[in-house]
Amino acid sequence: MPGQPQELSRRWFCATIVAAAASIAGSACSSGAGRAPSPSASGTPVNPPLQFPDGFMWGVATSAYQIEGAVTADGRGRSIWDTFCERPGTITDGSSGAVACDHYHRWESDLDLMQSLGIGSYRFSIAWPRVLPGGRGPVNRRGLEFYDRLVDGLLARGISPIATLYHWDLPQGLQDRGGWENRDSAEWFADYATVPFAALGDRVDRWLTINEAKVIAEQGYQFGRMAPGKSDLRASGTVIHHLNLAHDRAVEAFRSVQTTGRIGPCLNLPRATPRMTVRMLKLQRWLPIPPRTLFTSTRCSRAAIQTSAVRTTALPTGSKERPRPATLQPLPHRSTSLA
């Protein structure tokens, strides 16, 4: 309605950008400004085909909680997302991953569909609470066997498996002990990682440790929009450090048991420029970022990680002072170790 503020959404944002781009392009064409030479004049195709490097593999990716369902089947334990979805008001339509795509029961037909699409690789995540229901302790063999069958099914269809160890579904039992805010979480994660390494490492040669650690810290601990739903700036700084430690410990475990294969983190890397300030981000209105923002960088140096491990600072609520970039010089007593 006229005079009423319009609710922002991804669809509205994209539509606005497309409309603006079309308007600019139309005015440029009508005036002749910025008009590109014709192919015949330049001798170069206007839109040359994209070239992908040799060995580039097309694939798809999922996460366990998004597709598996069967949250109580075959001994699976609870995760922080089970708890988060049950909390009133956290999910707009009240839905959850309790059933989802029922991939746990339909995995064979799902793989057949992937094969029919000509997919070359598939990145899936292993549900920590399905393998270790309490986060630690005895292995749930029935849960682990699901991923054993999944990997064999992928290979039988000519699809290369890529396994993600953690895609946000921390066992609730570990959350009750402090979750990622507890420094012991790095060791918990390494202990868990050795289980799928041992069970699947003879057939899976590409591994990812943690999916989008930045999102876990921001959305789960700073903004409270994802599990476990906390809004604590200091906690988010602690969590991002412990996630980095967990990655390190898992890589060490991988190298101790694997003779072949590759492993690394899964990062989401947004475009960033040196002059991108909080004010500019707020004007974009993509996220309601408060002045006391935990800044992250696509180039995270060892010194930056060390600095964040010692202190996580923020401007006081309501402060109008512009945030200053963090010093990236290593601290003397933490210059050689991420621990």
Characterization of this structure:
- By secondary structure, this protein is α/β, with parallel strands linked by helices.
- It has 2 domains: 59-268, Alpha-Beta Barrel (TIM Barrel), CATH 3.20.20.80; 270-333, no CATH class.
- Helix content is 42%, strand content 8%.
- It is built from 13 helices and 5 strands.
- It has helices spanning 10-31, 39-42, 64-67, 80-86, 103-116, 128-131, 141-156, 172-175, 185-200, 213-222, 233-257, 278-284, 302-310; strands at residues 59-61, 121-125, 160-166, 206-211, 262-266.
- The chain has a 5-stranded parallel beta sheet with strand order 1-2-3-4-5.
- The chain is globular and about 45 Å long.
- The model is unreliable at 1-8, 20-40 and 286-339 (pLDDT under 50).
List the SSEs and their pairings.
Elements: H1 10-31, H2 39-42, E1 59-61, H3 64-67, H4 80-86, H5 103-116, E2 121-125, H6 128-131, H7 141-156, E3 160-166, H8 172-175, H9 185-200, E4 206-211, H10 213-222, H11 233-257, E5 262-266, H12 278-284, H13 302-310
Parallel strand pairs: 1-2, 2-3, 3-4, 4-5
What keyword list fits this structure?
339 residues, alpha/beta, TIM Barrel, 2 domains, 13 helices
Structural class: alpha/beta
Give the strand content: 5-15%
Largest sheet: 5 strands, parallel
Report the order of strands and helices: HHEHHHEHHEHHEHHEHH
In terms of quaternary structure, what is this? Answer: single chain
